[in-house]
Amino acid sequence: MSLITILFVLVSALTLVTVVKLLSVSNLVNRVRGRKPYEITEGENNINALMCLFMLFFGYAIYFYFHFKYVTTGQLLPASASLHGEEIDTLQTVSFVIISIAYLLVQPVLWYFAFRYRYRKNAKAFHYSHNNRLEMVWTIIPALVFCSLIFYGLKIWNDIFSTEIEGEKITMELYAKQFEWAARYAGADKELGDVNYTMVSDKNALGMITPETIDSQLVLINRKRSEVLAALAAFPTPEELPELEKQRDRLNHQLKMVSGFKKKNETAKYLKGHDDIIIPSGGEIHIPVNRPIELKMRSQDVIHSAYLPHFRVHMYCVPGLATSFTFVPTITSQEMKAKLNNEKFDYLVYCNNICGSAHFNMQMKIVVETEEQYNRWLEKQQTFALAFKGEAPATKASPAPADSAKTDSAAVPAAAPKKVAKLK
Ligand SMILES: [Cu+2]
Fold first, then answer.
1. CATH code linked to domain 274-406
2. For the chain, N or C: smaller number of CB within 10 Å?
3. 294 C-alpha to center of ligand 1: Å?
4. Which residues are CB-contacts of 275 (< 8 A; sequence separation ≥ 6)?
5. What is the 303 CA–ligand 1 centroid distance (Å)?
6. 318 CA from centroid of ligand 1 (Å)
């Protein structure tokens, strides 16, 4: 337990003791003055009643302050930059209006009644057992409103997930791990190559399965495994033993899995990853405007959540579970910068699920550009096969040195070597 935690527990315990002691002091005072223990005076009751009235105005003040500060000025989020986003925004506005009406109507009744009918010594209570019509009204109206909201939300959810989006889609993967994003494009064959977590290594951060990565991974595992076995044979201390055994078991499992890929000999299947393009963490995702983008999400370690607020996209990334979402960006980064009059504006993907200590910093930049700009960018990217072969680690943001020299920004499409066919 850290010092801060101990201090926190101590302060909480002392506060609790103080409150209990204060209560017994007030109890003693009451007894001295000849009142019943914990008796509340009329004066105290009036103060409570006034505080109820205050709460009404305090709540209203907060409501209108935030309403005018953020909602009416559109400061919460800029206009949706995706096709389906407009529907989500309408849904949100409708929900917000209904909630606001309910809040503004119910609050005065709630707090005024608490104020008006506070305890008074000589007041007589009026016994009103029930009123069927009133019960019906306040049961049926909220039920109808909530059901309509739910059905409206379901309809929009259905629309978004079932509508066939026109245009040729770009398939890509968002890869989450503590605490960074990486991305992968399907490449010329428009299919993402196979992956497995046992294939992850320094050179293969996303665990791609290709004939080359299988061989290289087998060498790596066997080397590590013989090191661990040697250490186990050399009479380790009782402290070292459990960790070494754990490592051995893990490597045995990994060896079994990777040898399995090798034995299956599904060469054609494992060739799909060759043309994939990997954007390592620290890099940027580029997507063309007005083209459907199919995002497939994957997580290496814990549950993360891909949150692209400007496109109204939000989807969990769960280890061992495939999730995906298709959306169409409609506003380029440049247009959005101009619209917001903010040169520093960037589209970002955030993690929206607290996943550990550096969760807050887990983000990646997304550049939405014209189809031509996108194709020009794509031509400069290295395929996974080349990146893996060239010993250029696929974990660095910049392309391999040899490659960047050839495809400098001045060297536009025709001059640049055709590493990747256009995704068209
Ligand atoms: Cu995360």
1. 2.60.40.420
2. N
3. 20
4. 186, 187, 188, 189, 383, 384, 385, 420
5. 7
6. 10
Q: Considering the entire predicted model, what is its pTM?
A: 0.72
Q: Which two tokens stand for residue 191?
A: 């299919």
CB atoms within 10 A of CB 318: 17
Contact call for residues 181 and 364 (beta carbons, < 8 A): yes
CA of 87 to the centre of ligand 1 (A): 27
Q: What is the pLDDT of residues 177-224, one digit of tens each?
A: 999 999 999 888 888 888 888 888 888 888 888 888 888 888 999 999
Q: How far away, in angstroms, is 316 Cα from ligand 1 center? A: 10
Q: Which two tokens stand for residue 127?
A: 């016994």
> How far, in Å, from the CA of 348 to the mean position of ligand 1?
14
If you measure from the C-alpha of residue 390 to the centroid of ligand 1, how many angstroms do you get, rounded to a whole number? 31
Instruction: Determine the distance separating the centroid of ligand 1 and the alpha carbon of 317, expressed in angstroms.
Output: 9
pLDDT, one tens digit per residue, over 254-312 is 898 888 888 776 667 788 888 889 898 888 999 999 999 999 999 998 999 999 999 99
Query: What order of strands is seen across the sheet that includes strand 180-185?
Result: 277-279, 180-185, 170-177, 293-299, 323-327
Measure 92 CA to ligand 1 centroid, in angstroms: 25
Contact 217, 250 (CB under 8 A): no
Mean pLDDT in consecutive groups of 10 residues from the start of the chain, 424 residues: 87 95 85 76 88 94 90 79 91 90 92 90 85 93 93 92 83 92 89 88 87 88 91 86 91 89 75 87 91 92 93 92 91 92 92 91 93 91 84 43 36 33 35
Q: Where are the domains of the chain?
A: 211-270, 274-406
For residues 210 and 271, the answer to whether their CB atoms sit within 8 Å is yes
d(CA 289, CA 21): 66
Q: Residue 87: CB partners within 8 Å, gap ≥ 6? A: 156, 159, 160
Check residue 146 and give its pLDDT: 92
Burial annotation 335-364 (CB, 10 A radius, 16+ → b, else e): ebeeeeeeeebebebbbbbebeeebeebeb
Please state, in angstroms and rounded to a whole number, the distance separating the CA atoms of residues 165 and 187: 21
Please tell me the predicted confidence (pLDDT) of residue 265. 67
Q: How far, in Å, is the centroid of ligand 1 from the Cα of 395? A: 19
